[in-house]
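TL;DR need structure tokens for one chain.
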Amino acid sequence: MKYRQLGDSGISVSEIALGSWLTYGVDVAANTARACIERAFDEGINLIDTSNIYGRGAAEAFLGTALKGRARDSYVLATKLFFPMTDTDKGLSRTQIMKQIDASLTRLQTDYVDLYQCHRYDPDTAIGETMQALSEVVRAGKVRALGFSEWSPQNVRDSLAVTGTVEFVSSQPQYSLLWRGPEKEVIPLCAANGISQIVWSPLAQGLLTGKYSVGTLPPADSRAAHAGMGSWMKDWMEPRILGAVDAIRPLAAEAGCSLAQFALAWVLREANVASAIIGASRPEQVSENARASGLKVDPALFARAEAIAAQVAAR
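>> reply
TL;DR here they are.
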């Protein structure tokens, strides 16, 4: 496993991170989820990403129990806030930041999180109030560093304009061969301001694993076939997109790796990406994806894959 610096934070994170959206504490059995976490550590993964909204606290609570007893400085723990936890508890106001960080710490059974991220931008709260409150929790020792997810370039610029506050060191956008939106403005802006990317869905909800093909039913044990998790994949399961993925598959074989490893290595070719978050429902998936770290692929193969993906890419 290779490691990269997380923006200007001084925190070192594994190139592959383990996420918990739709999985741990929710749709994956506890013993299997624990096995995935153990395998992640065996593979050198040190970044664990979650959010208070995942299972309305269930993912954080599961991780709090699963990580208990492991040396706290042996992993980097990231969580988020913004989405409604109750009818009235939502957003990025000072009140919510103070309330939600304490609730997350309780569920995670820890005194601090390494990275606290704004899950979305809050248009109903002044950016100055948000940045001041986030800075307070950092200075109180409850958080080591700050990040955001899916903020627009203007949102980022507005945060940078607030003086006397702790600055963001990470951005968490969707980014993959099939979703390249951050390249236009977000990545250049962040790179110029000491902010790294921790990308989600680098495998396009599993589509870039190669397990789905045109004209065939999804494997019974796959995300697309799952009653809960599969609902998030409907937009990806179009024949034209599946056909493009089928066309990219031989390029991965030519590179001597799996399609998933090829797709993850493509994301990691971008220097501003510190880590790519994977989701896993089986330990062997963790191992396969972890081996994308440090993988060397001929840029010409990536260029051919980009040309294919460009025909169907969402952005």
